[in-house]
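[Automated response] Your request has been received and processed.

Submitted sequence:
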Amino acid sequence: MMRTTQRRMYSEASAELRRILKEKIPQQQELIKKLKAAEGATSLGPATVEAAYGGMRGITGLTYEPSLLDPVEGIRFRGLSIPECQEKLPSANGGQEPTPEAMWWLLLTGEAPTEAQHKMMMEEFHHRATNDAITDQVTKTLDSLPTDMHPMLQLSTAILTLGHASKFAKGYATGAATKANYWEYALDDSLDLIARVPQVAAQIYKRSFHGGSEVIARDPSLDLSANFTKQLGFESAEFADCMRLYLSIHTDHEGGNVSAHATTLVGSALSDPYLSCSAGMNGLAGPLHGLANQEVLLFLRELQGKVAERSAAKDGAELEKVLTECIWDLLNQKRVVPGYGHAVLRKTDPRYTCQREFCKRNFPDDELFKFVDTVYKITPGILTEHGKTKNPWPNVDAHSGVLLQHYGLKESQYYTVLFGVSRCIGVLSALVWDRALGKPIERPKSITTEALCQKFNIA
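Generated structure:
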């Protein structure tokens, strides 16, 4: 009887998502049609020579539905700030933080799920994750890889292996997938991928750092985050709530960042969601993007060592004094302070703030937290005085390692995989909408330096 009920909820969840999207997609298509008719020729801003050489920063050149980043307010997920998400989105299993299931529903539909919809989404992911044949196939692939291969390389490889079961690719090959229903196939693949990637990520953690790639069975009564922490080998309910926060706030950061844009770009060629998401994960693995959270922790440990060479202070004015000296030494060596500054933000990243509040609420006396909080207290002033950065405030990477270290997940090489598990949710919700709106293949124009010099008579 229990199995029948779970199957019914599973099918109801999938049908509910399709029902909502079938209502919203025509409305959005009509809105875009009106917008293009009225303002199609209107410029969204200049494309300068500086921007062409500077990573296209400042150029608005694409639309992206799930989130929008404001330089002052920070990220908004479908119009909701992080505190609003914490207030309005459901949690699970006695936790306080929003679940990834709730964030997925919000990013995909633009609506906060009801408790009933949230429960159905939990069931949906549980059933899609439970496929022995696919699990065995991925396990064989992972077991063929060196255990010292970087975890992000393993994750990208595993996602491509999961793509062997792509319904989008099969539908396109057989002609069943058409421009009118591409989004449904993309949705099916996205649901499968989001459901299965936490288990894959847990296997990568085990084989990379603790030997073996065995699969710990999922518990159908738990949400995605609680199951993930359990499969990683942690039983703490508080850590499960920490993982809910971590996975929720890392889901999306509008469409111009490397992982989101790489996914969008590859998907625009009608590559299936697995190929597209793997491309996004490869971008996330770069040290100027998702790998930065690993580098921040290494920097903090280095900084702790430099402080310890000069003082035994753990907090207070003495620690502030020594830290100030150490940070100035680094800046005078032409080094940067990892975790500070952002391409768009011009204030403290709200993702940093909510992690800081979680620490203050749950482990205010943690030594690393107090150290990082002291760095936060003095660094913006130092960077402002130094005058070399437009944004002296911390971003999300400046704090995420503190939470993970506290609960015993100490392998910093793995942290970008956690980021990847989360980021899949945001970029795949955008990919579904790209196919629903019939977006064409991306093909911006490029120009050579020679052509620019000729244009402006520069020799």
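Summary generated for your ticket: The radius of gyration is 23 Å. The beta strands are 67-70, 74-77.
If you did not submit this request, please reply to this message.
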